[in-house]
Design brief:
This protein has 465 residues and is an all-beta fold. The protein has helices at 437-441, 456-459; strands at residues 29-32, 41-45, 50-51, 62-63, 68-69, 78-79, 85-88, 114-115, 124-143, 155-161, 166-173, 180-197, 203-212, 221-222, 227-228, 238-239, 244-245, 255-256, 279-280, 293-294, 299-300, 311-312, 317-319, 343-345, 350-351, 360-361, 373-376, 382-385, 390-391, 400-401, 406-407, 420-421. 2% of the residues lie in helices and 28% in strands. The protein is elongated and about 140 Å long. Residues 70-214 form the F5/8 type C domain. This is Myosin-10, related.
Length: 465
């Protein structure tokens, strides 16, 4: 029988008489039954899309099931003759330094290999022993002198048939005129080949044999994460389509991508790619980040992977869309790199209830319960707190001093902003109690005041007029 080896491989290929019960056939290959008590011969490796358990007699023994793939361990064929042992079929059949071993040393230049003796009756040959079993599918013969003469015109190539210990013809060539001759054929399992010719003298530079030691599949391989296969007898799995995710060994995409997430090709859990901060996605099957929607106006999306907005933005703030915070500031950048302003404080002269979709203008005679402000700068894009003893109607460019006999009470910041009558006071003065909140904030600007961390009395002052 064939020498035993690891699964999918044979041993040394020698014939060893043994009773049938002791035969050990490699997996991943096709074997030929030689009869009871006779050796089994490896005749080919298992076909792609199929697997061959131990004892298989066909290259397509078992079709690969759905959810799996069946392919040889490697698809790379190399020159298995490189460095192989070479012997002439007639001992001593070489001239000078043109020894037979040079036909497998990798030097393909003409006139550098084996030079046989010149015999009038012809009859030369050599064997190339790979040292192990290989599945070969092409032989290349490079012949002739450096001057391009004496090209090997007629020859035959045989492979060693292990079961019978004989050589079987692979192909023969009757009239070759090319210094490099190659012929491909169906895979043959062998450990050595023989080249023979009837020409009187041979100038053979190199013999190359394309082959692999890898058997076919001995068992089906499950499709990996992110792949699937809905058909049988397949050599590869299909990548999971976008908008779906595929768990291992699946015969179809497992499910649509989860809401709040998107699934490019090859997704395997449906949770790998969450919609970023400031976005959400309320439908299943999203394919790309572009399907994550900006958070609606008046709402914020404060975490990743949301199917719905987190909630409404704080009173006193205007969320313009794409907000990731309930109290957005235009100077802040989205941590996930989503561009565009998410919102800001409610504009001066307007009020913003919780979740407002559009700042509402204060009616004439009313004021924003924002801290009293006045606007300055060339583009009216800066503003400051109204000083104690002054009042600042909406849109004021400068603070206006309270009239004589009135005062501006800092304690009434949450009431109508203006000057109240009372007492005999000089214009532009305030009660001694002005050493309270408004006085303490005098000279501050709203831009430097983070109302999210301020006193609750101040935080929501722009919610109403």
């Amino acid at each position: 029988m064939l020498g035993t080896g690891s699964p999918g491989f044979t041993g040394d290929g020698r014939i060893i008489p043994a009773p049938e019960a002791n035969l050990n056939t490699p997996t991943g290959v096709q074997v030929a039954d030689q009869g009871q008590g006779q050796p089994e011969e490896v005749t080919g490796r298992c076909s792609d899309g199929y697997y061959c358990p131990e004892g298989s007699s066909k290259t397509n023994a078992v079709a690969c099931p759905p959810g799996h793939f069946c392919k040889a361990l490697e698809s790379l064929f190399t020159n298995v003759a490189l460095g192989a042992d070479v012997e002439p079929t007639i001992s001593g059949d070489f001239v000078g330094s043109g020894t037979p071993d040079k036909v497998t040393n990798g030097d393909i230049a003409s006139g550098t290999g084996w030079v046989s003796k010149n015999t009038s009756g012809g009859g030369h040959g050599l064997t190339v022993d790979f040292g192990d079993l290989f599945f070969i599918n092409e032989v290349t013969v490079i012949s002739g002198t450096a001057e391009g003469k004496d090209i090997l015109s007629s020859f035959s190539v045989h492979y060693f048939h292990s079961a019978s210990s004989t050589y079987v013809e692979l192909f023969s060539v009757a009239s070759n005129k090319e210094s490099t001759y190659s012929l491909s054929f169906g895979e043959v399992a062998t450990r050595k080949i023989m080249l023979s010719t009837t020409e009187s003298q041979v100038y053979l530079s190199e013999i190359q044999v394309s082959g692999t030691s890898s058997p076919g599949s001995a068992a089906p391989t499950p499709c990996p994460y992110g792949w699937y296969q809905d058909l049988k007898a397949q050599m590869a799995c299909k990548i999971c389509p976008e908008g779906y995710f595929c768990q291992d060994s699946t015969v179809a995409p497992t499910s649509k991508c989860h809401a709040g997430y998107y699934c490019p090709k090859g997704s395997y859990t449906g949770y790998e790619n969450p919609c970023p901060l400031g976005t959400y996605n309320n439908v299943e099957g999203a394919k790309a980040i572009s399907e994550c929607l900006p958070c609606p106006i008046g709402k914020y999306c404060g975490s990743r992977g949301l199917a719905h907005p987190t909630g409404e933005c704080f009173a006193g703030y205007y969320c313009k869309g794409g907000a990731w915070s309930p109290a957005p500031h235009p100077e802040e950048n989205n941590p996930d790199g989503i561009s565009g302003p998410a919102g800001s404080l409610c504009p001066i002269g307007y009020y913003c209830p919780e979740g407002t979709q559009s700042p509402q203008p204060c009616q004439e005679g009313a004021r924003t319960d924002l801290l009293p402000l006045y606007v300055f700068g060339e583009d009216n894009d800066d503003y400051g707190l109204c000083p104690v003893g002054h009042y600042c109607p909406s849109g004021s460019a400068t603070p206006t001093p309270c009239a004589r006999g009135t005062f501006q009470d800092p304690k009434n910041l949450a009431l109508r902003m203006g000057c109240q009558a009372g007492g005999v006071l000089l214009g532009g003065t305030a009660l001694p109690a002005a050493l309270s909140l408004a006085h303490a904030l005098q000279g501050s600007t709203l831009r430097s005041l983070d109302r999210r961390n301020a006193d609750p009395v101040l935080r929501d002052l722009s919610a109403i007029c």
